[in-house]
Amino acid sequence: MMKMNKIAEGIWEIPVGAKEGMRVPVRVLSSDKLIGGIDEGVIDQITNVACLPGIQRYAICMPDAHRGYGFPIGGVAAFDSDEGVISPGGIGFDINCGMRLIRTNLTVDDVKPRLDYLMKELFKAVPSGVGTRGFVNLDRNRFQKVMVDGSQWCAENGYASEEDVEHTESHGKIPGADVKAVSERAVSRGIDQVGTLGSGNHYLEIEYVSEGRLYDPKVAEVLGITSVGQIIVAVHCGSRGFGHQIATDYLQLFTQNAKKHGLRFRDPELAAAPITSDDGEAYFAAMACAANNAFANRQVITHRVRESFEKVFGRSAADMGMSTIYDVAHNIARFENYAVDGQTKRLLVHRKGATRSFGPGNDQVPAVYREVGQPVIVGGSMESGSALFVGTEQAERDYFGSTLHGSGRVMSRTQAKRQVRGEKLQKDMAARGIMVRTKSMSGLAEEAGFAYKDIDDVSQAVNDLGISRLVARFLPLANIKG
Amino acid sequence: MRSFEISDRYTTADIGLELAADSLEELFIAASEGMFAIILGGRSEEKSTVKKRLEFCTASLETLLVDWLSELIYLFDTEGLIPERFHLTITTEEERPMVSGEVDFRRYDRERDQAEHEIKAVTYYKLNIRKDDGLYRCHVVFDL
């Protein structure tokens, strides 16, 4: 393993020169407890990232990092918008995979007696697993509007409230989306998947505010979390086959055109193009289409969740206080301004398995949250629930406004299946008061809690580093596993 | 001769295949069969109902394999097609290797097939097709 120097509490550095071609150092953000578990593959990948043209300050690894393709998952890098590159491997195949939290005014006691009925309805309303189709009927023209307008299309078509849109990163619409940059293949993969969860580690979860885990009640209140036992709904999914195809298309194009752009890559998955080239601009435009599609996907799922709650509890969603706390991307590239060497620069920040973490006062944060900072939603395993943070000025100043995204996997799927069978896990979780529904028992075993880092360890690490501030922890009551 | 083994040797979050075959054609078939074993959790011989002619030409054998498998994912995702039988030819004499041939497919049946994994994409992660002791070998990793 390459040598890492601890330069401050929670921060390790790999200097320029540790690998030939590094243009900037690497910063690994972690804790004394977690640092020993870091995978050698992660270090190899993040030092490759540090070699890319136009990279600024340092390549960053979050405490939940694990091996990915090109960038590690939990990798952040910012590139000069004139001299830098854009790389599909810095965003991921699931463009705008992200998290949404929906608050309610219901309590565990309100929900438990009807939980089984609620889960049956949600399981029907939100298709999950392989090869599922969404309920939104889109022709090509309407799908193109989804690509350009994202959540705002949902508002125009009765699937979103104004508040939903306001409480979504960039109002659920990344500027610069251009449907001409999207292949026919991507359209045919995505056109009937709006409103579906997908599979793997994607989920829809009923959670509650955990006793003794309301860490900052004042900030929590601003975010609409007022009491222990309050029911919250968490949604984790992305742009489905549409985004996967766009990533595949442009990875192929960037590989073919590497010579034309005068670029060589240490890893084929790090294929990139200059941001200002036709190829780079086209990929950004297509990526924005996929990101907007993902915002719309989580919004349509929110609509279906509201309908299911209305059916089960016989009350309107408004009466149950069902509003979006926030929706945030964790696989994306965004143009943002940061001070580098005393100069404000426009950078393209790649966050792959990392979340934007803007602090109090930032005008990108919804007005009602601006005094406390942007909500940051961190998903754990299906046994551990989620964590809610707010962003900080320190994250903006030191780490391009970024923080972690999840727990991070530590055990392979095969190992997890060797340790537990899906049926047994489902029974054990039920005994602990967590109901799980899934289409695949073997897929369930692969997502067992022990396959992930402890969410409390990674949460503590970023809280101590000051790159996001822990507000509350939610525990799972019921989970639909994709 | 061809074989595949499902493996997690190279990745924490995803799944790959260790492949061996006595010809490039057999290697591509083993990769296709292995990929659908990951998606469906096993293989079942069913009657084919759809025949398609596929042809790809790329800069390297590795790119050819990624493009080939990506096409099969695309056909599964958009048309629910599962490949059953392959009649392939791979040529490497020219500067750009080429795969061409016919594939017999059957249709995915949600009730019967009980798919286990959705493959987002085929990756180039440490992908290197080589010939050892008369056998073509490689591993290929899928992003799940």
Instruction: Identify the overall geometry of chain A.
Output: globular
CATH superfamily of chain A: tRNA-splicing ligase RtcB
CATH superfamily of chain B: Archease domain
Shape descriptor of chain B:
globular
What is the domain tally of chain B? 1
Which class best fits the helix and strand makeup of chain A?
alpha+beta
Would you give the CATH topology of chain B?
A: Archease, Possible Chaperone, Chain: A, domain 1
What is the radius of gyration of chain B? 14 Å
For this structure, the CATH topology of chain A is tRNA-splicing ligase RtcB
Structural class of the helices, strands and pairings of chain B? alpha+beta
CATH class of chain A: Alpha Beta
Fold topology:
The complex is a heterodimer of chains A (482) and B (144).
Chain A: E1 5-8, E2 11-14, E3 26-29, H1 32-35, H2 40-49, E4 59-66, E5 73-80, E6 85-86, E7 98-107, H3 108-111, H4 115-125, H5 140-149, H6 151-156, H7 162-166, H8 184-190, E8 203-214, H9 217-222, E9 230-237, H10 240-256, E10 273-274, H11 278-313, E11 323-329, E12 331-340, E13 343-352, E14 355-356, E15 375-379, E16 386-391, H12 393-398, E17 402-403, H13 413-419, H14 422-431, E18 435-438, H15 441-446, H16 455-465, E19 468-481
Parallel strand pairs in A: 3-4, 18-19
Antiparallel strand pairs in A: 1-2, 2-3, 4-5, 5-13, 6-10, 7-9, 7-11, 8-9, 8-19, 12-13, 14-17, 15-16, 16-19
Chain B: E1 2-7, E2 15-21, H1 24-40, E3 50-57, H2 61-79, E4 81-91, E5 98-107, H3 110-113, E6 121-122, E7 130-132, E8 135-143
Antiparallel strand pairs in B: 1-2, 2-8, 3-5, 4-5, 6-8, 7-8
Helix pairs in contact in B: 1-2
Overview of this protein structure:
The complex is a heterodimer of chains A (about 475) and B (about 140). Chain A is α+β, with helices and mostly antiparallel strands. Chain A has one domain: tRNA-splicing ligase RtcB. In chain A, strands 7, 8, 9, 11, 15, 16, 18 and 19 form an eight-stranded mixed β-sheet that branches. In chain A, strands 1-2-3-4-5-13-12 form a seven-stranded mixed β-sheet, with helices on both faces. A two-stranded antiparallel ribbon of chain A has the order 6-10. In chain A, a hairpin with a 2-residue loop joins β1 and β2. In chain A, α8 runs antiparallel to α10. The longest helix of chain A has about 35 residues. Chain A is globular. Chain B is of the alpha+beta class. Chain B has a single domain, classed as Archease domain (Archease, Possible Chaperone, Chain: A, domain 1, 3-Layer(bab) Sandwich). Chain B is built from three helices and eight strands; from the N terminus they run ββαβαββαβββ. The two termini of chain B are about 30 Å apart. The mean pLDDT of chain B is about 90. The chains are: A alpha+beta (about 475), B alpha+beta (about 140).
